[in-house]
Amino acid sequence: MNHQKQKQGTKATLQKYAKRYFIDAMGAMANGLFATLLIGTIIKTLGQQMANLIAAAWAQDFGGILVKVGDFACAADGCAMAMAIGYALKAHPLVLFSLAGVGYATDVLGGAGGPLAVLIVGIVASEVGMLVSKKTKVDVIVTPLVTVLVGCGLALLIAEPIGNGAKALGSIITWATAQQPFLMGMVISVVVGMILTLPISSAAICAGLLLSGLAGGAAVAGCCAQMVGFAVISFKENRWGGLIAQGLGTSMLQVPNIVKHPRIWIAPTLASAITGPIATTVFKLQMNGAPVSAGMGTCGMVGPIGVISGWFDPVAEGAVAVTPNALDWLGLLMICIILPAALSMLFDRILRKIGWVKDGDMKLSV
Question: Are 196 and 319 within one domain?
């Protein structure tokens, strides 16, 4: 009996820390990325296109201002990610503020794989900082000193290797997708799409693995299939509010319903298994913008915007700017909106006919 209780206690502890670090911390880190790198990229892209498309002096000046603002926002991503992690872990104020320098150092040292390095270093620095926070009469000195020394010291030791490892793994995935675009397109689309719907940050994973090129395009396809798919097949239950909340917000809203009725997940997942290979083999859709965009889908339309910014101002290694043609624009629309909606509705209709999905199964509680 005692052994069983001990086993249950160990399992509960593992679940607690898994949620704390792989759901709460990673999700918060993705929000930090969104508030800096993603928003900055969007603002910068708008400024560039305004300057390119409008010859008037005011457009050139305002476009230039937007580009500068976007650059400033992007430069703060390491600080924002680390502080977001601390916030999710309920760090005390002095720990939280000290994480700004830790995040900056880790992101710089981690290079292209900075987000993954920030996740690990940010968690350790937060937890160690909390061990000493409010424990002494000179807390204003001790807490920042410990947090910064531990965080930056750890960053000096592991950030670069972590960044190099993440970059290498991302390169392998990108290379494999180029070699086997159909199979890898399907696998990446399904896996990243399902991660998007689960309470795990697909954006953080895509950023950490530097998913770009065709692999990034497949990830965009999978995320869009989940979000648009659930938005349209649950329209009867959730109407326009649900359409917007899931299509432009997150398909994660369906997780409680998936737990109760797992079969509702079949339609959007099958849709992603089809749109992924189409993205990689037919339309050659590539994500050469910020890799984090690959894991965002239609959330704020960040996924499509990332593809567009990658056309005009690529950040992926080896990518060059291109002028998109009509097929590129059609492919983006088909992969991100039209095919996910049409395929999900088709599969959902079949599932309802055979009784696997019923009215009310996808009703949102909020």
Answer: yes
Task: Domain of residue 97: give its range.
Answer: 11-166
Dig out the tokens for 194 from the structure.
């399902």
Q: Give me the phi and psi of 133, to 5 degrees please.
A: -60, 130
- How far apart CA 116 and CA 7 sit, in angstroms, is 31
* pLDDT (tens digit per residue) in 147-193: 999 999 999 999 999 888 888 888 899 899 989 999 999 999 999 99
Contact at 8 Å (CB) between 329 and 285?
Answer: no
In a domain, 3, yes or no: no
SS3 of 177, please? helix
Q: Among the three residues 140, 166, 192, which one is the final residue of a domain in this structure?
A: 166
In total, how many domains does the chain have? 2
At residue 91, the 3 state secondary structure works out as coil
Distances in whole angstroms, Cα of residue 71 to Cα of each of 38, 54, 79, 296, 324: 11, 21, 14, 20, 24
Residues 40 and 155 in one domain: yes
Domain-located, residue 173: no
DSSP assigned state of 133: T
Q: Give me 212's structure tokens.
A: 């770009």
* C-alpha distances out from residue 281 to 101, 294, 305, 331, 340, Å: 43, 17, 21, 11, 17
The verdict on residue 359 lying in a domain is no
pTM comes to 0.75
Both 186 and 249 in one domain: the answer is yes
